[in-house]
Amino acid sequence: MTPVIGHYGGYRKTLSFGLTCLVYHATTLFCRRNYNYKNDALGKTVGQMEGAARSARQNIVEGSSRAGTSKETELKLLDVAKASLQELAGDFEAFIVDAGEAPWSESDANYVKVKGMPFDDFASNDDLRHEYGKHILAMRARFAPALENEDPIVGLSHVASLILAFVAFSALAEPAYTNHAGNAIAGWPVALTATHVVLQEGGSSGRLGGTPRPTTNNNPPPPTTYPLSIFPESEQRRIAADFGQPRIPVAVKRAITGAEKAMARSRKRAEKGLCTQEESDAFCERSEAALKNYLDKQVKEGTITPAERKTLGR
Questions:
Q1: Which of 40, 46, 71, 220 sits in a 20 to 30 Å window from 246, CA-based?
Q2: 130-169 as b/e, with b when 16 or more CB fall inside 10 Å?
Q3: How much is the average pLDDT of 237-249?
Q4: Are residues 236 and 257 in the same domain?
Q5: What is the pLDDT, as a whole number, of residue 245?
């Protein structure tokens, strides 16, 4: 029986949520250090900045939680999270310029350094809230000299650079994917906008909500998504499966194609009289058995799922 509610949650395992948590904590600390009743009497500046940081964090949580019943809602909430981060970066940029400084250049050594700071994977599946709290505290301590620097210009420059690097990356049509190693930023927008990838042309509304997006002059709307190829293979399969598009690993496809070609060659040899029909049948029978054992092993090892196995017709 197909479950009514699909897969959801798991946001604590994403790099996007972890880095957004760091941005949130850096923002609240900055506001406590630099604003008071004298320079923000009504609390509007603090409210806007902390609100944007909280919006980014909590919309990832809510989007992930809603994924089981509505991919469209998940996508919209993740988009809100991304926009909130951009709003926050705008506030930081204004603060830096107001202090008589210019935001860092993308070639600045500090900008390059903060992009490459490693953020560890969170792998625990037990006592999630407690263990994730410990994980974030450890990562916060690692990033604190940059993101929570007592010099407000230095601290905000680091946080703004982190956010803007993410925005610049997500604007690329076919960015190279780097999974947590080397460049921590590379994994962020991929995780944050994962559901974009399988929507292909025409945006999200038609695919997710059932209502086609309107077109003009009989031309389809431009593509608004990333190619699935920017994801590691395991993530490609998970996303594609969520949208009912099973994606078989290349190695498995090659094994099947190789076996089928070998059996086809054997049958042709029998037709040409280069071997007997019995020899050809025996070879094909052995090949089918070997292929079945191979696919059974792939399912057992988790390389492909039973559902993906069915789509192969074997």
A1: 220
A2: eebeebbeebbeebeebbbbeeeebbbbbbbbbbbbbeeb
A3: 60
A4: no
A5: 57
- Token pair in block for residue 309: 């196995």
Same domain, 188 and 204: no
Whether residue 89 is contained in a domain is answered as yes
The rounded distance, in Å, linking the Cα atoms of 260 and 312 is: 12
For residue 302, the enclosing domain spans 250-311
Q: Are 60 and 20 in contact (CB under 8 A)?
A: yes
Q: How far apart are CA 7 and CA 108, in angstroms?
A: 42
Same domain, 45 and 179: yes
Instruction: Tell me the three state secondary structure of residue 219.
Output: strand
Q: 245: closest CA among 288, 197, 300, 280?
A: 197
**How is 48-61 classified by DSSP, letter by letter?**
HHHHHHHHHHHHHH
What's the whole-number mean pLDDT along residues 120-124?
82
Residue 3 included in any domain: no
Could you report the per-residue pLDDT of 175-208, keeping only the tens digit for each?
Answer: 332 232 223 323 333 333 333 343 333 333 333 3
